[in-house]
Amino acid sequence: MTESDWNRLEASLPVDWRDATLIGRADLGDGPSPIMVVGGTAYDMSGVAPTVSMLIEGGKTDTAAGKSLGPLEDLGLSASPDAPYRLLSPIDLQCVKAAGVTFAISAIERVIEERARGDSSAALAIREKLESVIGGSIRSVVPGSEEAMALKASLIEDGMWSQYLEVAIGPDAEIFSKGAALSTVGWGAEIGVRSDSDWNNPEPEVALLADAHGNPVGATLGNDVNLRDFEGRSALLLSKAKDNNASASLGPFVRLFDSGFTMDDVRTCEVTLKIEGEDGYVLDGVSSMSEISRDPTDLMRQAMSEHHYPDGFILFLGTLFAPVQDRDTPGRGFTHKIGDVVTIRSPRLGALVNRVTTSKDAPPWTMGIGALMTNLSRRGLLAD
């Protein structure tokens, strides 16, 4: 991918973006601002609500009150830090949550990691055994159903049970905190894997944006970067496997639900993945949301649970994609190399494009909540 391709936002927009209602964030020269795109025109909404969370919670998404920035394609939004207008992650103060093991194939891969103790060289033999024993049965049951509980009892009796199978077919989904508010990166940014990880992969996902009451208001694309070696050694290392600098990307925009784009579009969408390495390596994959084991609304309900999220939350819904294609050594499967370009695409959500580096070398996360409030105050956006 050339630098010009890297910065072509137009190629990453939804196919019907002129008919969509999009919401996001951009640095327009003086700091982060919520922006909306309606009818192909971009609007600066910072004068209406200084953060995306306030925009959503206040129900202030009428662009008539915003400042027109003109046609989106003329705005020159870029991922470059030196660009006059820079596109950012489309969320800000929302909590960042993720659901795990929501597809049968990912459940099997998590069990593989666990049994391999994070050693990628042992994965192939374990995968073949697990697929032959539980591959068909785990794909056919509804989590929490009587059939699922019967399968659980059978697997326990056969010595095949795992904590990952519990969240795959049991009544309770795995919901975890992926990162802190404001820690996600956006379209075109570098994404990070820990420098001490040698078995890792992208996780292309659909993510749902929820308001403070847990109601889904829109959807976007996400990369829930995963370290298979860390989590495979112990599930108690989940935080080290998941929450690292630049380890979660979202974008390019959140598409708000309306009469032309609903939850049913999320339920039936396909998410494609392309990984292009500087060594000429190319990997293609596809994840169909129709194969998810739990309905997105159920995952949202379980994420909300008995919590209170006054600024709302974003929820990564999980992925079907589990890369097993060998990259170098036969039997060791896939792992990232520095410089990989990851493109996650779904026609009605657009494309999320990021280049891989280490979390140590990715640009440091410096604008936390305190810095954001200071910036908004300096710009006179917190007066009311």
UniProtKB/TrEMBL annotation:
A GO BP entry: small molecule metabolic process
Originating organism: Stakelama pacifica
SUPFAM superfamilies to which the protein is assigned, alphabetical: FAH
GO MF terms held by the record: catalytic activity; metal ion binding
PANTHER family: 2-DEHYDRO-3-DEOXY-D-ARABINONATE DEHYDRATASE, FUMARYLACETOACETATE HYDROLASE DOMAIN-CONTAINING PROTEIN 2A-RELATED
Database matches in InterPro entries: FAH (IPR051121), Fumarylacetoacetase-like_C (IPR011234), Fumarylacetoacetase_C_sf (IPR036663)
Family: Belongs to the FAH family.
Sequence ranges assigned to domain Fumarylacetoacetase-like C-terminal in this UniProt record: 160-356
Protein name: 2-dehydro-3-deoxy-D-xylonate dehydratase
Record flagged with keyword tRNA processing: no
Assigned keywords, A-Z: Metal-binding
